[in-house]
Amino acid sequence: MKKMLQSDMRERELMERMTTISEELEDLVRLSKHESVKREPAMVDDEVSALFRKSNRSGMALSKALLSIYRIMVVKNLVRGRFYASTYNTGKKLGLSVAVRSQREFVKVVRRFGFGSVRIVSFDVDNVVLRLRNTFTSQGVKHSKRPICYFEAGFFAGLLENVYRRKFDMKETACRAMKDPYCEFHAIQSAIGQKQTEAIHGYPLEVYSQESLKLLTSLAAHSIAAIENTMLFERTRKQVVTDSLTQIYNHRYFQTQLQTEFMRSLRHDQTLTVFMMDIDNFKNFNDRFGHPKGDEILKMVASAITDNIRQIDIAARYGGDEFAVILPQTDEKAAYIIAQRLQKKIADRKIMLDKRKVTMTISLGGVTVRPGALKKAKPSDIIDLADKALLTAKRKGKNNAILVTRS
Hints:
Blueprint: H1 2-32, H2 43-58, H3 64-79, H4 84-96, H5 103-112, E1 118-124, E2 127-132, H6 150-164, E3 168-174, E4 183-189, H7 196-201, H8 210-241, H9 251-268, E5 272-279, H10 282-289, H11 291-307, E6 314-319, E7 322-328, H12 332-348, E8 350-353, E9 356-359, E10 362-369, H13 371-374, H14 379-395, E11 401-406
Parallel strand pairs: 10-11
Antiparallel strand pairs: 1-2, 2-4, 3-4, 5-7, 5-10, 6-7, 8-9
Helix pairs in contact: 1-8, 4-6, 10-11
């Protein structure tokens, strides 16, 4: 299960990245057509704003740790030219949450929020120009190809809206991350007609020719289709190798991985162990309580197995109420310990039926094949040996484990 969970995490990360790329490309298509891009506000923005409002009301010192966490998350993407709008808008929300009414209060708030001393070049309503020696976004960043202090720009814009009671947007014109001596911000009044996208990104769409926009739109559309196809392929591939009920690997994947582990053990001169397991009296249980309750038992057993094997081990539903586990690099002594642990953990998991707890047990058959025997065997031989050991265990009276070794 751990191995499967790790695979799921990789797949989930891939899906998240492709989804983000797909959304950005869709935005590019809309922007190239001069359409607006609308996003639902993130809940985290509201939560962070509430935290800052609470800090402002109570007079608590702003948590530098919070800003550091935010910075680590965002700066890398800003340097790469991503998340401009979301970073700017988050900063602006925070600025709007702070009550300021004058230039003096503006300076105090900037210092209190950890930005240091701000030099006000101009604070006229029609021409606000601010300079900062250091910003927490640009600190330590070198060789950026673009301004990156969008959080500060948004924050200042929010404060200015509170001071002047009118719409403002802020644009960074110089940045220490680009080796400028300071970060400089110019306020742009929305009322003048400046588009917010231009204020945030710094480049209006008009700088691109119509031919370039058509090419970008075409490339974006094709890229979206390719990403969606890749995501569909990943989902389909996962469905192909996963048992839909228990969410562990299926019989097909087990056979493929057994061949892989067999060849790996042979190549590296290592021992290989395989378990076959079956739930005791499962047919009688189904007949008495019904198949939905039987499905719960199957899921419980699958969970108990995957929770008690290593990351490199492979658990699968072999068929019906039968499960299989591949245990690479496992000798007979370790196999015995694992078999005992699996039987105990499954027996310990009680199921409530008819207002009473029911205990389920498994019979287990296993075979440990040492390197010398691997050279004379095939993967199908290993399955046959494990299956015969399982049959012997069941004939002995259920809840037994029979392990054999081939040298």
